[in-house]
């Protein structure tokens, strides 16, 4: 919702205003019950006057949510998402991926060492075979 109103399609501007009048819609989206796309399609098909929308008003009044509570709620949602993410992690898979990465990094290091080793041996051979090679003191 950081875009300028002039940049949005008029129907989207109307829908955003409708959402401000029905703040409980935000909770359903954050809880995963519905998506904004689903709400928009219902709003577009049913219209603003349908009785379905009454449950999304706060006591039948048009009250925008306070900004401070929204930021605290976002932080709580973020922490909840992080906890659920860590619960879903399979430790054995992570360990296997780390082992694969370690093996790959070791292989790359070996290739780099081989190329560096070839360059130093070539320089030594060239210096030994060149009769005009003089080392600096």
List the topology elements.
Layout: H1 10-21, H2 24-30, H3 36-46, H4 67-88, H5 91-129
Question: Could you explain how this protein is built, in words?
Answer:
The protein is an all-alpha fold. The chain folds into 2 domains: 5-88, no CATH class; 90-127. It is 66% helix and 0% strand. The protein contains 5 helices and no strands. The protein has helices at residues 10-21, 24-30, 36-46, 67-88, 91-129. It is elongated, with a radius of gyration of 32 Å. Residues 62-66 have low confidence and may be disordered.
Summary of the model, kept short:
The chain is mainly alpha-helical. The protein is 66% helix and 0% strand. The protein has 2 domains: 5-88, no CATH class; 90-127.
The count of helical stretches stands at 5
Radius of gyration: 32 Å
Averaged pLDDT: 78
Are there runs of 5+ residues with pLDDT below 50, and where? 62-66
Oligomeric grouping of the chains: single chain
Shape: elongated
Largest sheet: none
The end-to-end distance, rounded to whole angstroms, is: 71 Å
Helix and strand element order? HHHHH
Number of domains: 2
Could you name the key traits of this structure?
66% helix; 0% strand; 5 helices; 137 residues; mainly alpha; 2 domains; elongated
